[in-house]
Amino acid sequence: MKTLPSTDVLIIGGGWTGLLMAKELSARTPASIVILERGRDRRPDYIKGMDELDYFVRMHMMQDPTRETPTLRHRDGERALPIRQYGAFLPGSGIGGTGEHWGAVYPRLQPDCFELHSATVARYGERKLPEDSSMQDWGVTYDELESFYARSEREVGVSGKAGNLKGKIIEGGNVFEGWRSEEYPMPPTPTPYFSELFRGGAKNLGYHPFNNATAVTSQDYTNPEGVSRPACAFCGFCERTPCMIGAKAQPTSVLMPVLKNRKSVTLRTGATVRRIVHDTTEKGGKARGVTYIDESGEEIFQPADLIFLSTFTLGNNHLLFLSGIGAPFDPATDKGTLGKNLTHQVAFGVQAFLPKPLNRFMGGGGTGVRISDFDADVFDHSNLSFIRGGMIGAMSVGTQPLSTFGNVPNSLKLPRWGAAWKKAAIEWYDNTGVVSFAGEQIPYRGNRFDLDPTYKNPLGDPLLRMTINWQDNERKMVDFMNAKMVEIAHAMGAKEVNAFAPYGDYDVTRYQSTHIQGGTMMATSPDRGVVNTYGQHWDASNLFVLGASTFPNSGSSNPTPTILALTYRTADAIVEKYLKRPGMLA
Amino acid sequence: MKRSYRHVGIKGRPDSFALLPPRFSCDKIPRMQRRQFLVLSAASLGGVLVYSLDRRASRVFAQEKTTQTLKIPLRFFTEEEALIVAAAASRIFPSDDSGVGAKEAGVVIYIDRQLAGPYGHDRYRYSQGPFDEKAAREFGYQGQATPSETYREGLKGLKGFDSLSSEEQDKKLQQIENTHFFAVLRQNTMEGMFSDPVHGGNIDMVGWQLVGFPGPRMSNLDDVTKHYGEAFRPKPLSLEQSIGRKVRPNEDEELKS
C-alpha cells in the first residue's frame, strides 16, 4: 500500500458539510487540506439535467446501488434484504453530494426539537413518552444555534419571510417558527396557482399559511463571499436534478467558486475511503489517517492530523462500523451508542382533484405554501394518542408526466391501465395536486444501524444494515394529519380527494424524503452518544463527524439548515479552540 | 445472464480490488442470428389527431411521413417479440377517442432500446444474491432476473398475443396483471409514452401533447404567477431543441462511473 505525505486536515466526503468545512478552515488557517470524494465531478452532465427518464427514473445523480446500498429489515430477528434500487430516500454521489439534487427546502428546526425529551416530559409527564422510545436532548439549544442558522441563510442564499423577528410575530411569515435575528436575505419565491389555492383553503379554516423558505433565488443574489447566482427561472426541474443556471443553492454553485481559488485545498475524486485507521480504545485515542482506493484502483494510506467524516448519514455510520470505532448499540443490554436513534422523517401526501388546470410544470425547488399549525408541539397533544407533528403544505416544485401521470379519483375504481383509466388520467392530469406532510419520527431503541451479516459490496465489505419501522406514534400521527389534509383539500375546492392509505410497514419503494438521520448521535456524555455537540468523537479527539447522522432525533424540518449551522459552529470551535490546543472540546 | 464484478487484485493482495463499474460482458448477451426489424406503417406513427388538455385537436406528423412503411432495426427483440410487446403496450395505453396511445408514441422502439442497453442488463440495481422472489412488497423486487430476462421469460407466456382480439388481449393481461413482468411492462410503457423523444418513444412529443406538458422549458419566470385557473400550454420542445445541442441518451452511453 502506498503511503502519501501527511496532511493537516483530511475531509471524507465532498458534499455540503465537507466543502463548507474546507472553505472555513482554508480561509482562517494555513492548514493543508485534502478532500476525498468517492464520486466524480458531474458538472459537465448538468446541461442534460432536464431529462426526466435519466434523472428521475434512472437516478443519474444518486449513489450507484451496485456499489453501495444498505440492507433493511423491519424488526430484530428478520433477515434484512438489500435496497436493490433507491426509493424511500435518495443519497447522492459526486462533488456536492446529495446537495446537488436536493429540493432546497430550508426551514430551521423548531426550538423544542433540540430538547425533545425534557420538553415533552415538562408538558405532559413521563407517561406520555411512547413505548420503547429513546428520546434525549441534544445538548445544544436553538438559541445557541440561531446565529449559525442566520449565517448559513446568508451564505446559501435563502428566500422567505420571517414570522418571528426577535420575538415580534409577523403575519404572513411562519408565526410558529423559532425567533430569528434577521429577515431572510431574499423575499419569498413566487406562488404558483396550486400553492395559492392552498393558502386560501388554509386561511378559511383558520390556519396560518406562509411561503416556504427555500435555498432557491427569488432574485439575483450575491452572498457575503462574493458568489453571485441568478434568479430562479422556475423551469420545474429541480428536485432529483442539478440546477443548470445555479439558481438553486448547491455546493458546486455556492462553495466551489470560493474553494477553487484556495491553494491549500486538494480535492481528489474517485477516492473511496475504506477504513479510518486509528488506535482508539474506549478510553480515547486518535485517528491516524484513512485508507482509500483511488481512481486507478490502487489502495492508498493517507495520514492526517485532523479528520472530518462528512459523508451522508449512511456513509458516516458505515465507515465507523467498518473501522471499528466506537461500541455498537445493543438494544438487549442498552450498552454502546454507535448506530442508535436512526430516524427517517414521516412523509406522505393526499391527492386533491381540482376543478381547474394547475399548470404544474412551472415551479421551483422549495417553492410553495405550508402551515405549521400542526407542527412539533405547537398544538396541544393532551387528548391525542401521539406526540409531535409536522408541516402540511402545497409545494409547487414543478412536475413531469412520467412521474405523475396516472392519478385518478379512487371513486372511479379503475385499474392502473387500459382505456377507461387512460381517459380519466388524461382528464385529471393537470388538475391533480398533492397536499403533502413532512413530520417527525421520534427515535426508538429498535431503530438503528449495524453491519449486515449476509450482503456485501464489490470490495467484499459487509453492507450497512438498517433496522427501521414505523410505530404507533407515527401511525396515529399520519391518521390525524391525513384527516386534516383531506379537509384542507376540500377547502381548496377539490371535487374529490384521495386520502393516503394508513401507514403499514416501512416501504423502501415509496419516496419519503432523503432525511435519514442518527446513528452517530451527539450527546453531552460518552455513554449517551457517539460524538459531542461539536461532532467530536468521544473515543478519538481528532475525529469529527458532520451531518444529520449526529441528530438524536428527526425534526419535521428538512435537515440541511441545521446540518450547516452545526458545521459552522464546529468550524469556529476548531479555529478558535481546537487548533490552539488539540483535545476534547467538551 | 449473470453479471460479474471486475476485480483487479493489487500487488498480490487479495482484498484490494479496483472499484470499477460492474460490467456485463457483451458476448453473453444472446445474439440474434440475423438482424431483426420491426416494420410499421408510417400512418400508424403519425398523421393522427391528438388532443391537448384544453381539448383542441392538433395534427401530428411522423418524422418519416414520406415513406409508406418504416423498417426499424431492433436491438433486443425478435420481430415476433416486438409485435407482442407493441400489442400489449397498446392495451395498457390504447389509441382511442381520448387520444394517441403507445402505438403512435413508438413505445416498443423505446423498450427495445432500453432492454439492449444498461437498463436491460440491470446496471441500475444491486444484483448480488441471495435473492428472495417471495419478499414482501415493501422491499421492492428481490428476484434475480434482469429486465431483459424478465421480458424474454414473460413473453413466452404471450405467444400469439398480437393476433388476438382486443377483448381477448385484455383478458390475457388481466391474468398476468399482478406479475413482476406486467409491472415492468406497464412502467416501461409509461416511460415510452412520456420520456424525452431522444430515448426513442414519445415520437414527435405526442405523449406530452396529450397531457399538455411543454417539455423542458428553460424559463417559466414570466408565467409562473399568471394563468391562475386556466390552461397554459406552450408549444412543446424536446431536450435537444431546448438546449440547442445533440444529446447522447443513457441507453447509448458506454458504462462509466
Q: Which structural traits does this protein have?
A:
A: 586 residues, alpha+beta, FAD/NAD(P)-binding domain, 12 helices, 20% strand, B: 257 residues, mainly alpha, 4 strands, 29% helix
Description:
The complex is a heterodimer of chains A (586) and B (257). Chain A is α+β, with helices and mostly antiparallel strands and 586 residues long. Chain A is built from twelve helices and 25 strands. Chain A has a single domain (2-578), classed as FAD/NAD(P)-binding domain (3-Layer(bba) Sandwich), CATH 3.50.50. In chain A, strands 1, 2, 3, 11, 12, 13, 14, 24 and 25 form a nine-stranded mixed beta sheet that branches. In chain A, strands 8-17-18-19-16-22 form a six-stranded antiparallel beta sheet, covered by helices on one side. The longest helix of chain A is centred in the last third of the chain and has 20 residues, at 472-491. The model of chain A has no long low-confidence stretch (mean pLDDT 97). By secondary structure, chain B is mainly α. Chain B is 29% helix and 7% strand. Chain B has helices spanning 79-92, 102-105, 107-116, 147-156, 166-176, 180-194, 206-211, 239-243; strands spanning 37-41, 48-51, 57-60, 69-73. The longest helix of chain B has 15 residues, at 180-194. Mean pLDDT of chain B is 81; it is low at 1-32 and 47-67. Chains A and B meet through helix 2, strand 5, helix 10 and strand 20 of A and helix 6, helix 7 and helix 8 of B.
Brief characterization of the structure:
With 586 residues, chain A is an alpha+beta fold. Chain A has helices at 16-28, 52-57, 116-124, 142-156, 193-204, 251-254, 256-259, 313-323, 401-404, 419-428, 472-491, 560-578; strands at 2-3, 7-12, 33-36, 71-73, 81-82, 164-165, 168-169, 210-211, 221-222, 228-229, 265-268, 272-278, 287-293, 299-309, 340-344, 346-353, 368-371, 390-395, 432-439, 448-456, 462-467, 496-498, 516-519, 536-537, 540-545.
